[in-house]
Amino acid sequence: MLFKRIFATFLMIASLGITATQATTLPADKNPAQSILHILDYVAVDYPATVKNGKVINRAEYNEQIEFTRRLKPLLAMLPQNDVNSKLQAMTDKLIQAIEQRAEGKRIRTLSMQLSTQLISAHRIVTTPRKTISIKEGARLFTNNCTSCHGAAGFGDGVAAAKLDPAPTNFHDRERQGQRSPYSLFITITLGVDGTAMSSYASLSEQQRWNLAFYLSTLYHTQNELQQGQRLWQSGQAVGIINSTKELSSVTPDEIRNRHGEQGVAVLAYLRNNPALLDTGKKPPLKVSEEKLQQSINAYQQGRQQQAYELAVNAYLEGFELAEAALVHAAPELKNTIEREMGLLRAEIKAGKDVQSVTLHANEIKLLMQEAGNKLANTELSSGMAFFSALLILLREGLEAILVLAAIMAFLAKTERKDVMPYMHAGWIGALALGFITWLVAEYLFDFSGSNRELTEGFTGLFAAAMLVYVGFWLHNHTHADKWRAFIHSKLHGVTSGTVWSLTIISFVAVYREVLETVLFYKTLWLQTTVDGHSAILLGLLVSVILLILVAWAIFRFSVRLPISLFFRINSALLYVMAVVFAGNGIAALQEAGVVSMSIINFPKISLLGVYPTQESLGLQLALILLAVAWLGYERIKKA
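Now predict its structure.
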C-alpha cells in the first residue's frame, strides 16, 4: 500500500499541469480604485489631527482634505459601472459633507473605512499578496530605497529628513501607524503621496511592494509584543484573532485592539513578522490536536469507530507531535503524560470501549493540552534554548544513522576496499536529496500527511533492521581469521557486487528514514523562535553536525586498528544493536500511523534506543535479541 501511494504521488507530479487566471485590471499605479483607496486611507489617518471640536487646527491640511475628497467622485465615475456605484457615490457625498462640516475625526475615519470596505467588495479588488511574503527582502528594499528620508530604523530621521516639509513618516508612531494596514502601506508605496517627497515606487514589482509594505508594518510593534504574540500563537490561544492572509493584509492595530485588546495586537505583531503561518493555513499544533480529538469523539458517539480512530491518530501526528519539541523544555513530564494518554485513547477506540469512558478520557486529554498551551504561553524560547533544541534534534535523529555509516566506512577500510566508498556515500547523499525533495513535494504540492510520513519511517525502519540483521550475522560469520582469509581469496577482498549494493541500500535507508522528521522538527522550531533566535538554531545545527562527524571519525579511526577478529565482532554487535533500535522505531512509527495495534505496558521509554513501552515493539526487539542468542549458541555448539 505504501509503495502504491508513493507511485501514485509521482504519477501526479509527472502529470501536473498548473493553470492560472489573471485579472484584467489596470496596473496599480493607473487604477482608479487604488487611487480612491489611497485617498480614503490618507483622509482616515490625517484628518483627525486637522480638526478638533469643530475647529480647524491646520488650515492647509484641512484644505488638502477637501481637495482630495472632491477627487473621489470623478475617480468613481471611471470605474466599471455596476449596481453598487450609485451607493458608492452617495457614501462619497456623505463623507465630503462631513468634512466640510468639520465633523469629528472618529466619524470621518469611520465613513472612510466604510467606503473603502464597500469599494473593495463591489469591485473585487485584490487586497492580498499573491505569493508568500518575505520580510527579509522587505528589509533589504527599505535599506536600499528609503533610509535617506526615513532613517535606518524607520524613525523618519534620515539624512535628507531635515530639508523635507512635510517630514518623512515615522513608522514607529503608535498613533498614526496604529491606523495603517499593510495594504494601505502597499498603496502608498505604489502611488506615492502628492505634494511630498514620497514618490511612487511602481517600478518595483508587485511582490516587492508587498514585501516592503509588510516590513514597514512590523516597525509599529515592540519586541515585547512580538514575543508575547509568539507565545500566544504557539500555545493555541491566538486562534480566531486573525484567520487569513487577507485579513492580516487589511487590518490595522487599532482595529485589532478594539476587538481583542492588547493580546490581539501581540498576535498581530507575530503574524506580521511571520505571515507564512497564515499562508499555509496551519493552526497552532495543540489547537489542531484539540479539534481533531473533538472530531474523533463526535464520530465515535455516532458509531463511526474507524473514522474516530483515524481522527485520533491525526490528532497526534498532525498536531501534538509538532509541539513536542517545545514541550520537552517547557513541561517534559506533561509532554510524556499527554503522549501516553493519547496512545491509550487510540487503543480504547480501536477496542470499542464504551462511549462514555472514551469521551471522558478524550476530555481529560484536552484539559492536559490546554495546560500544555498555558505552559508554552508562559515560556519564552530563549536563544540558548533554541540552540540546545537545534543541537539535540539532529543528535537524536542523526546518531542512529551516523553509527551505521561509520561502521560501514570502517568495514570498507579494513577490507582495503576504499574504492567502494563512493557507492556508500552515494547512498546517504541520495537519501538526503530524496528526503528533501519528498519534503518539498509534501510542503508545496501534495498533502504528505502525518500518517504517510510515519508509514514511510516505519517501513524503512523495519527494512533497515532486516538488512542490518543480515549484515550483522554475515560479519559475525567471518570473525575467524582463517575464514576471513579464505573469503578474501574467493571473493576479491571480501566485497562482491551484491555486498556493494547491500551497503549502499543500508546507507540510503538509514539516512532517509530520519530526514523527513528532522526537517519537520527544524521547521517547527524555526517558527517557534523569534528572529533573534534563528542564528542560535543555525549554530546549534552546525555544532550538532560537527559532533556527528567526530563520532563517525572516532568509530572509523579506532575500529580499523583492531585485530580482524575483534573488529568484526564489535562491528557485528554494533550493527545488530542498531537493527534492534531501528526495529523498535519502525514499530513505533507504524503504531503512530495506526496500522499496528498498541498495547501499552509499564516499561521505561528510551526513544534514543528505540525502546517504547508497548508489547508490540518490545516483543519484536526481544525476538531479535533471542535470535542473536540462539545464533551464538548454535555457533558455540558447532565449534564444540
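The beta strands are 51-52, 55-56.
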